[in-house]
């Protein structure tokens, strides 16, 4: 393990802990930037999808991983962001450059408003409350048919920024770069939250509300703020999802999407930006992996290529059960262990990452 | 005027009277100890000052300002810091981050500038870290700076919690059983720290403590509570020799001991 | 007359929700875990019965397959706790929620592979028959559901208050550590509670399948039962039933009196309002954390 000799407070404040780390992440960004030259149209589409899921995942991660508030209703805010973005373009004729950030603001305000009456709810109650919001939003989209076109759905127009066209099919590379830009911006904002008083207030609320309050943190306001920032980012992801899908209706953002989003960040690893990306990789690439392995198997066995309904979510579910039982820190946790193993070789001890178990912590007593 | 005035405060939980018309005042610059058997209402008094409980009667004034007009999260901003009997640290954060949360009261930036991490936010961060380093030096926590709380031994956690309260830079420090569960050596450290907090930092200390050695060593005045009522007030020596206090500890009451808070 | 029939069909639906909610609450009270897969337990119970009874599968007599299905689900619950959930002891509540959601995905897939994804009906002796009370025509299935629910509730009540094991379960649910010190085998009690929840889910499933066709996705009904449990007060057995009945009654009356589209959101609107104004349900059982 590298020991950093800190010479100023900035060593703790900066984005990167040391030069080598900065180099690695810059290299990763460079690869991400030249990816369209290395991959075909289909795979660039898949990578775009992955990045959009990662943005949504980071949005939810701020709430679940940083502030400790479980939400099973984030598809509602994907929907709000998506509909707000497209409706602002279609009905008010706003350009994407305005409608996109506004969609984030609207989703954020909606999230903060909905959170306000729910800030007293904990754990399971909050999960069910947000679940209800997801279901209600689904139905409200149908009810608000004059605006949302109900179950028929809406078409997302081609994005036009200062004369440049961004379309998933016509200009997939450009669309990819745009999504990558948003993803990087969200990562930077997320890092800023983590290193500022706001992020510490979130962590304080997550770990002990009583003492957060005794430290002068306004718990209700902090939770509402966390909801707002989280849903704003999720709303941005929703807007991108709308443009990516081209056409969408209430079913695009149903309760299953809400659940999938939460499961995704758990698989990736709660509490880290890496976790959101690892989870997004699983969600976005699992269908392709299944398709490829099915083709392989049927190639050997010579059987038909019949799609098995529910296989995808079943594999997803089975993976999740495995992770929760054997690696509750998710893919990122496993990654950290493997990395430490090699860094310390041969001095790695098995109980280095042993988890502290709190047997008596009852969640009923709040 | 006293720094903290508890004025005829009563609190009931259902039919149980946890605190019964208690009045006392803490003067600026002193170390004031609350003692008493389990269930006497000592921690409940702390929770009343922290505004976790709402008294049914009476008033609590800090520097002449009624605390009852402030929401719970304002108490730290007024300059009152506290620790908890059973340690309430932020488990999934490092020692440094825990101490930095104590600086929340001194936060000057709003959330939008923090999302963008403007230069003024960075400047604030540097100031907070400089302030926290002083606490780390004071309490000898250097070795644990970047350790997660979840893996720390009990004694260290106890010190970190005291450090987090000091990072607030309070005028009044409430210590809820600062020496419980500590070894003799660790308790001695705590005694020295309390002396220094009072003399060097000029912070007034109100503490709940069972260890009478520690209480006699550091406190200027001691208040004994039993069954939610004030029994005796004076120096440690006077209170320990008060017949009413001796009776409350040794017997007299045939009710089983009850933990109120 | 219309109103009465609406009432009875709502009550019957409500009883099914109530029974699923009862399963949630049983587990929650005893182990503090929340079983999001309880709806899928019900689905599995219904399909096991169907697989045993229907002619296209095993073709056993209905009254033989019912006890087998209940026993199977009981064993499933017991083994699930013993092999999977016991490892989760000491982890956060949300981790268990996520685990059981994932389990629900897997169960839905397994049921789909075995019994197909097309809606099928259980060949139940109570399906599609009427009973007449004077001029009133009621479905035999609905009446049976209500009666069975009442009987089951009474049995559970006596079980928890009169039998030694039931009292031990209550004790374990109120203070695990104290119960452990008193020599109650808390781990085994937990497994037995899961078994009980599985058996109750099987009963709910059989009753539900007698009312109409089922497919592997009916487990999502669990979400409604969840709403029911919260409305009634998580942690209260009578509350769960009460909540189930409230949700069951709201649905037919809302769709009768309110425009379509608005009616289906009513249970969730009520859930939301309850969470905002009375966060721990109608019959709350929550204490404040001590510092």
TrEMBL record, chain A:
It comes from the Bacteria. GO terms for cellular component: plasma membrane. InterPro entries: ABC_transp_permease (IPR001851), LivM-like (IPR043428). One of its GO terms (molecular function) is branched-chain amino acid transmembrane transporter activity. Keywords: Cell membrane, Membrane, Transmembrane, Transmembrane helix. It is a multi-pass membrane protein. The chain crosses the membrane at residues 24-44, 50-65, 96-116, 123-144, 175-193, 225-249, 261-286, 306-326. It is found in: Cell membrane. This is Branched-chain amino acid ABC transporter permease. It comes from Aquibium carbonis.
Automatic annotation (TrEMBL), chain B:
Residues 4-252 form the ABC transporter domain. GO terms for cellular component: plasma membrane. GO terms for molecular function: ATP binding; ATP hydrolysis activity. Keywords: ATP-binding, Nucleotide-binding, Transport. CDD domains: ABC_Mj1267_LivG_branched (cd03219). PROSITE patterns: ABC_TRANSPORTER_2 (PS50893). InterPro entries: AAA+_ATPase (IPR003593), ABC_AA/LPS_Transport (IPR051120), ABC_transporter-like_ATP-bd (IPR003439), BCA_ABC_TP_C (IPR032823), P-loop_NTPase (IPR027417). SUPFAM superfamilies: P-loop containing nucleoside triphosphate hydrolases. Gene3D superfamilies: P-loop containing nucleotide triphosphate hydrolases. Pfam families: ABC_tran, BCA_ABC_TP_C. PANTHER family: ABC TRANSPORTER ATP-BINDING PROTEIN, CONSERVED COMPONENT OF ABC TRANSPORTER FOR NATURAL AMINO ACIDS-RELATED. This is ABC transporter ATP-binding protein. It comes from Aquibium carbonis.
Automatic annotation (TrEMBL), chain C:
It is found in: Cell membrane. Coiled coil: none annotated. One of its GO terms (biological process) is amino acid transport. The chain crosses the membrane at residues 6-27, 34-52, 58-80, 92-116, 136-160, 192-210, 265-286. CDD domains: TM_PBP1_LivH_like. Keywords: Amino-acid transport, Cell membrane, Membrane, Transmembrane, Transmembrane helix, Transport. It is a multi-pass membrane protein. GO terms for molecular function: transmembrane transporter activity. Signal peptide: none annotated. It holds the Pfam family BPD_transp_2. GO terms for cellular component: plasma membrane. This is Branched-chain amino acid ABC transporter permease. It comes from Aquibium carbonis.
């Amino acid at each position: 393990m590298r020991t950093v000799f800190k010479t100023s407070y900035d060593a703790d404040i900066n984005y990167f802990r040391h030069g080598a780390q900065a180099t690695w992440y810059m290299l990763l960004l460079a690869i991400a930037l030249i990816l369209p030259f290395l991959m075909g149209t289909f795979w660039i589409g898949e990578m775009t999808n992955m990045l959009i899921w990662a943005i949504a995942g980071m949005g939810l991660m701020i709430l679940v991983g940083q502030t400790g508030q479980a939400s099973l209703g984030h598809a509602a805010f994907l929907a709000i962001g998506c509909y707000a973005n497209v409706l602002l373009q279609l009905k008010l004729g706003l350009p994407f450059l305005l409608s996109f950030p506004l969609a984030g603001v609207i989703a954020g305000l909606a999230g903060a408003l909905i959170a306000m009456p729910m800030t007293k709810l904990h754990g399971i109650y909050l999960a069910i409350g947000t679940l209800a919001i997801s279901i209600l939003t689904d139905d409200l989209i149908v009810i608000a048919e004059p605006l949302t076109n109900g179950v028929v759905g809406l078409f997302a127009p081609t994005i036009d920024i200062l004369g440049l066209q961004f379309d998933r099919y016509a200009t997939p590379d450009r669309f990819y770069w745009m999504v990558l830009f948003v993803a990087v911006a969200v990562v930077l904002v997320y890092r800023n939250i983590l290193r500022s008083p706001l992020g510490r207030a979130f962590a304080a609320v997550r770990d002990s509300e009583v003492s957060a309050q005794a430290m002068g943190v306004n718990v209700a306001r902090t939770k509402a703020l966390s909801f707002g920032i989280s849903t704003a980012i999720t709303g941005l992801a929703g807007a991108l999802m709308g443009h990516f899908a081209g056409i969408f209706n209430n079913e695009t953002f149903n309760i299953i999407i809400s659940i999938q989003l939460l499961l995704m960040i758990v698989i990736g690893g709660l509490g880290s930006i890496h976790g959101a990306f690892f989870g997004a990789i699983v969600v976005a690439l699992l269908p392709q992996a299944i398709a490829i392995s099915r083709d392989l198997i049927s190639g050997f066995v010579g059987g038909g290529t019949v799609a098995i309904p529910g296989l995808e979510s079943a594999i997803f579910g089975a993976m999740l059960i495995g992770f929760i039982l054997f690696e509750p820190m998710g893919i990122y946790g496993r990654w950290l262990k493997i990395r430490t193993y090699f860094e310390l070789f041969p001095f790695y001890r098995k109980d280095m990452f042993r988890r502290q178990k709190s047997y008596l912590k009852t969640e009923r007593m709040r | 005027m006293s720094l903290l005035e508890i004025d005829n405060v009563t609190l009931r939980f259902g039919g149980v009277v946890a605190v019964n018309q208690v009045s006392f005042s803490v003067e600026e610059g002193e170390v004031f100890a609350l003692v008493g058997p389990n269930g006497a209402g000592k921690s409940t008094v702390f929770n009343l000052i922290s505004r976790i409980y709402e008294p049914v009667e009476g008033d609590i004034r800090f520097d002449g300002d009624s605390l009852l007009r402030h929401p719970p999260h304002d108490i730290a901003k007024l300059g009152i810091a506290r620790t908890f009997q059973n340690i309430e640290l932020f488990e999934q954060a490092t020692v440094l981050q825990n101490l930095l949360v104590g600086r929340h009261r001194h936060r000057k930036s709003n959330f939008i500038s923090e999302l963008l991490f403007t230069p003024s936010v960075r400047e604030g961060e540097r100031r907070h870290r400089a302030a926290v380093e002083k606490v780390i030096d004071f309490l000898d926590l250097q070795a644990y700076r970047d350790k997660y709380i979840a893996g720390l031994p009990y004694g260290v956690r106890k010190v970190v919690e005291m450090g987090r309260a000091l990072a607030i830079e309070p005028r009044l420090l409430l210590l809820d059983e600062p020496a419980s569960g500590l070894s003799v050596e660790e308790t001695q450290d705590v005694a020295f720290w309390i002396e220094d907090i009072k003399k060097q930092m000029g912070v007034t200390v109100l503490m709940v403590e069972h260890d009478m050695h520690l209480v006699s060593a550091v406190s200027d005045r001691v208040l004994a509570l039993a069954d939610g009522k004030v029994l005796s007030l004076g120096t440690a020596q006077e209170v320990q020799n008060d017949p009413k206090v001796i009776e409350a500890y040794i017997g007299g009451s045939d009710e089983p001991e009850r933990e109120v808070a | 007359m219309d109103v009465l029939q609406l009432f009875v069909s709502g009550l019957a639906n409500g009883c099914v929700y109530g029974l699923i909610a009862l399963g949630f609450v049983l587990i929650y009270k005893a182990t503090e875990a929340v079983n999001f897969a309880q709806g899928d337990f019900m689905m599995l119970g219904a399909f096991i019965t169907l697989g045993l009874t229907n002619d296209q599968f095993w073709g056993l007599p209905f009254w033989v397959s019912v006890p087998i299905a209940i026993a199977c689900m009981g064993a499933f619950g017991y083994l699930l706790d013993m092999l999977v959930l016991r490892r989760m002891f000491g982890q956060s509540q949300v981790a268990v929620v996520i685990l059981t959601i994932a389990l629900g995905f897997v169960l839905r897939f397994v049921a789909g592979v075995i019994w197909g994804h097309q809606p099928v009906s259980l060949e139940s002796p109570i399906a599609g028959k009427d009973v007449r009370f004077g001029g009133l025509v009621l479905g035999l299935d609905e009446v049976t559901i209500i009666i069975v629910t009442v009987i089951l509730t009474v049995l559970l009540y006596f079980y928890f208050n009169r039998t030694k094991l039931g009292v031990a379960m209550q004790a374990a649910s109120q203070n695990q550590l104290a119960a452990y010190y008193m020599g109650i085998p808390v781990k085994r009690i937990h497994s037995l509670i899961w078994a009980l929840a599985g058996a109750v889910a099987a009963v709910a499933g059989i009753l539900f399948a007698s009312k109409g066709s089922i497919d592997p996705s009916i487990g999502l009904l669990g979400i409604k039962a969840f709403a029911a449990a919260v409305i009634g007060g998580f942690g209260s057995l009578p509350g769960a039933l009460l909540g189930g009945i409230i949700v069951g009654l709201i649905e037919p009356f809302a769709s009768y009196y309110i425009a379509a589209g608005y009616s289906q959101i009513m249970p969730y609107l009520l859930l939301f309002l309850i969470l905002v104004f009375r966060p721990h349900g109608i019959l709350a059982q929550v204490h404040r954390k001590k510092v």
